[in-house]
Amino acid sequence: MSFLDHIRACNAHDLSGFRPFELEGHRLGWVRHALAEQLPGVDPGFVVTADRVTLAPEVRDFEARSSVLEHAARFLVETGAVSALRGEFYPVAPAWGAEPLMRIDRAVVAQFGVAAYGLHVNGFVRQPDGGLSLWIGRRARDREVAPGKLDNMIAGGQPIGLTLAENLVKEAQEEAGIDAALASRAVPVGAVTYRMETEAGLKQDTLFLYDLELDADFVPQNTDGEVERFELWPLDRVAESVRATKDWKFNVNLVVIDFMIRHGRLTPEEPGYLEIVRGLRR
């Protein structure tokens, strides 16, 4: 394993197996050909040709478009492609910050290959010798995605209807028992992006990154059952674990690599350094 292996894994895809999902001149996502062919039978609001998936012109407003996607989501549950809907909705929009054209259940985002967003917080402690330690969460074994894998102290998808700041406060409380005052000290430090083909479809994700420096006596406490336990690891141990193992949730590798670059743990002497840096933002 290597740092580059993780980046390449998060960007492995073949678009020849998909056709674009478009609306109003915007490319919103990618749908596998087999699913695309089924969609007009699920809801006549879908219009499918050999080279794209779109919605019928009469399906014009936010709620009507969202209803068409809802029918497709329920179809995917009925056919067993998705175990259950989440009841948490993501915006479907031409770009970050643009007005959403419709909403989609989080469970079927990959099936439509739409852009999804989330936030990850690196909770770290500065040691007396100047070294850094990072709070690591062990994901609960019953998680549908990456059960038992290592994770950031705080991470979550970005639902429709919340600002990033509001979502940060919510996730900080749920995942680490951090109150709003402490969460507000988290510093936005950029984003990582990737495009990854999975069994479900295509993940086109942007993760907004935050650093939160914590006192030495602080211990995070999970409140939503999604984290089995937290451990404070020296950054050298984190680096070796990411480099040499598959113990981390797939996209968290990218977040931690970015943290190590920004804090000088991963330097230009690292083999493939420039490819690593470029690979974090596709």
TrEMBL record:
Any one GO molecular function term: 8-oxo-dGDP phosphatase activity
A Pfam family recorded for this sequence: DUF4743
Residue span, Nudix hydrolase domain: 116-258
Lineage top rank: taxon: Bacteria
InterPro entries noted in UniProt: DUF4743, NUDIX_hydrolase-like_dom_sf, NUDIX_hydrolase_dom
Designated name of the protein: Uncharacterized protein DUF4743
Source organism (scientific name): Azospirillum brasilense
